[in-house]
Fold each of these.
Amino acid sequence: REGKLVFYRGDNGVVSYVVSNANSWNAGHWYHVAGVIDPVNGMRLYVDGILQSNTNSSTSPTAIKNEYTAFGKWGNANIRYFDGSLNDARFWTRALSQTEIQNKMCALLDPANETGLKAYWRIDEGFGITTSDFTGNGYNGNLHGPAWVMDTVCAQTQSNFVLDFDGINDYVDVGSDAGDGVRSIELWFKPDINYN
């Protein structure tokens, strides 16, 4: 799994995961990643809307465990900090199809028009120490160190603010139940260094 993206799920000691085809990522390049737990087909991973070849038969959504959820580091462990930028993170209580991922990955969503959108962080405020959950469900993210910077994430969108993480100790805390009952997770990321 060295260098690969991993969509990982642990539940009562049972670990399930899928990995990306690629194991290298270019500094300064934006990538869209979506992890999906389909109730029939199991776990799937998409990079830039393309289904990756690795699959896993696990079909249950994430458990209702009130476990800590963060962006920019490995859960509640103070390890594996991300060095790069993040934008437009979404948690869904339903499995997204490949077509939905491709059609919506560059779009600014209206939560009122989206079924199963549990949390949606546009990450475009540009100031302050929080990033708002646009669903109104209250999963606002508390910033611990990342900086607001301007960037163009998707070629079809205008320049906007994103969060840049230092790879040392920056992260965003989105609470203890944002990740409960989730079937799809998606976000944009841009590494500051080459991973290969």
Amino acid sequence: GFNPTIGTVSGVMGAEDITISVSYLPRVYQVTLHPRGGMLLNGFTSDTTYTRGQVFWLPTADDIVREGYSFDGWFTDTNFNGNPWIAIPNVATGDWDLYAKWDLLPCLAPENLALASGSLTATSALITWNSNQNNAFGGFYYENGVLAGSNNQLYQRWNLSELQPNSNYRVGVFAYCSLDRVSDTVWVEFTTNDTC
């Protein structure tokens, strides 16, 4: 676990005792972190080292991110056997390979979808909602047609032929968690007034 400093002692032994001091440097080993799609933050890198006799603390959930996933610890194999490692102990020796484990976050629909008061006119409607963390806006559609939207507000103009007076309409909002994961759709219903 230690590397002796290099040196030689030569000469002829006399009648008296001689004291020879030997100093050792702690051995340094390689650590390879495999983020598996994540990004290391706060100065952590994939390739680093640890010193024998000192605790080496591993990156926490604050130091590694992956969109759409929550971090679930570092493991010594990709089957994620046993408990996750939070540090390499001071008695450890040898090189280490550690693999990040990720849990897929649920794909949640937008919350509290509502038609903004007084915003419905003959040709337009404003829809607002509270968005969920980790989910990006994925779409806004009127019945079967896909329409435009952005962030947590939608402002969509329709032709007069699409909005009829005193008629019921439904609009829906959903969220993309990734390119292949889409949330359920949340719907809001409204009725046009007689001025359309």
Amino acid sequence: QLDQQGKRADAKAMREQVDVIRKKFFGNEDEVRAYKQYESALALLQQGKGAEAETVLRETLAAFRKHLAPDNQIIARAMGSLGAALSRQQKWAEAEAMHREALALWQKLGQGDQPAGAQARFDLAWTLQQAGKLAEAETRLREAAAIFKQVMGTEHPALAGTLNVLALVLDKQAKPAEREVVLRELLTLNEKRQPD
């Protein structure tokens, strides 16, 4: 209405103020669109649509990198999600590279020894074991298990899942004694979680 009243300068100043406030609280439109894309990509991943998720995640990651600070948790999460989409398609080399990049960013953010860093190690280990890189997969799984145990406790399902994959990796490496130790720990955890 200010435009219609001949107060274009006032109208322009007010639009600029509204735009500043909107960006402060909601981010710019491209950033908001990127977050919505990310949610869509996660839904595609859950539906098992790895190729579609990969396309959307690549676009989303590019948008996040353009609009956010480079050392940002959402970028690390998007990298991990892209790594998962690549793994679903058995693109092991690309998935490994993306998971390594995500883990490095979590470490840079000081989250390497927190649940996000443990999950990044687990995701990398899963990809490594699928690609036949069992020794490093074992190392990463042991690191992830130690972090999950320390930070989230022995009753958290992430620990049991990590130990289960570790047992699989040890079996593939023909390490029956070490596998037995891990399986016994898993059994103890399950007994604690399911009381009589």
Amino acid sequence: SICYTDIKNASFGVSILNVGADADFSSPPDVVLENSVFRNISGSNPAYVSNDYPPGGIVSLSGTVRATNCLLTNCGEYAVLGVGQSDISLNFCTVANYTPSFNRKTASLTFDCQRPDEATPNKLPHQVRISNSIIWGSIEDELYWEGFPSSNYTIRINNSILRTKDYTPNPTEFNTSANTPNLTDDPKFKRTPFNS
């Protein structure tokens, strides 16, 4: 686990790469993140560690991530990227991803249930839980699920503020909890690149 840590100015903050011939889907690798900050995470070349996987604050390729009370800010490609059989849980987390120095076109939180290391599509079970969190940034859609809706996704979002237009018309479509997320209200951070 990683606790009370500030990770900044890097190509990636935390990365789980459970891919290839040695991938373990019955007992995937996991990481617990608590009270930590991920800032200024980007790669000028989106390949790192001799692989073709993009950089990000938290990158999970078929792994398990439990983040509590974490801040992700100024992530040039992704704040959180979950691919394959990932299980992502964000609780009391803030994503304030304004990226003033980058021309970011990707959603801060991006998920894809397709196994990343296979040429033929093989969709895997994929879980995302967001509770008591703020997901906001400089683009209109800071949330993206590839191929959604799909029975491969299990998504639970409650008591959270999310910046998205794609999922605004019917938020209960991807929410299985009783608390519908707030998809429209700006969290009104005291200082951002837009008001400083």
